[in-house]
Amino acid sequence: MSTFGRKPPVTQTPGGQDRAGGGLYARDRAWHPAPLTPPYKTSVARSPMRAPISFPTTLSEETGPVFTHDMLGQLDADLIHNYAKSPDGAIGPRIVVQGRVLDQDGRGVPHALVEVWQANAGGRYRHKKEGYLAPLDPDFGGCGRCLTDEFGNYEFRTIQPGPYPWPNGPNDWRPAHIHFSVFGQSWGQRLITQMYFDGDPMIWHCPIVGTIPSREGIESLVARLDMEATIPMDARVYRFDIVLRGRRQTLFENRMEGL
Ligand SMILES: [Fe+2]
């Protein structure tokens, strides 16, 4: 699968996940932000007041809907054109985002649904509660989606979003980012995250980014500029790999199946 980028997609390490496989790995709570992080004001009202209860996963978490290409529209993965009335499309720096959806064992996750939403090139969302002065772009909606191929590759085309201010502290700004919702092969694998851009100084001023406990964790959310894949006179390419919660593999004699 490579509709927009120039580089061929990764084809080794085929997706080995089996819907009837074992349970899911427990999340590493030290890697993810703590639920209560007061510098990110909204977390105060949203975070639970009691410790979460842990229980083994069951079929409710280990299964999920099946996504197929015929569920997607032709322009779903092209945010430059999927809302535009003008043939030129949305205003802004043209980019392609490519990457893989992997599980914790490094296996590609096939047929994962990748949904994205973002502000326009000026940093403005198409939302009735948006309070930023930057103008709307009549040719940019800000939403898109795609499916991973059998090896876990995904890609979509869009414009680079701008940073924007938000009413958290007196002068807080979000770095340029794209929101991701990734649906793997079960409810328990679902991941909501954000992608940032290589070299953006605003990353290090953001109270939401500041909730992530380690520098390594933050770096894992920064997409890398891939000049080899960049399309001359058209679009730059950013690479962003996403790791979903893994699935324990069924033991086969003395080795793990699929490894
Ligand atoms: Fe945002």
From TrEMBL:
Keyword Oxidoreductase belongs to the record: yes
Gene3D superfamilies: Aromatic compound dioxygenase
Domain Intradiol ring-cleavage dioxygenases: 97-125
Enzyme Commission no: 1.13.11.3
One Gene Ontology MF term: protocatechuate 3,4-dioxygenase activity
GO biological process: 3,4-dihydroxybenzoate catabolic process
Keyword list, A-Z: Dioxygenase, Oxidoreductase
Class of this enzyme: oxidoreductase
Disordered: annotated segments: 1-24
Similarity comment text for this entry: Belongs to the intradiol ring-cleavage dioxygenase family.
Protein name: Protocatechuate 3,4-dioxygenase subunit beta
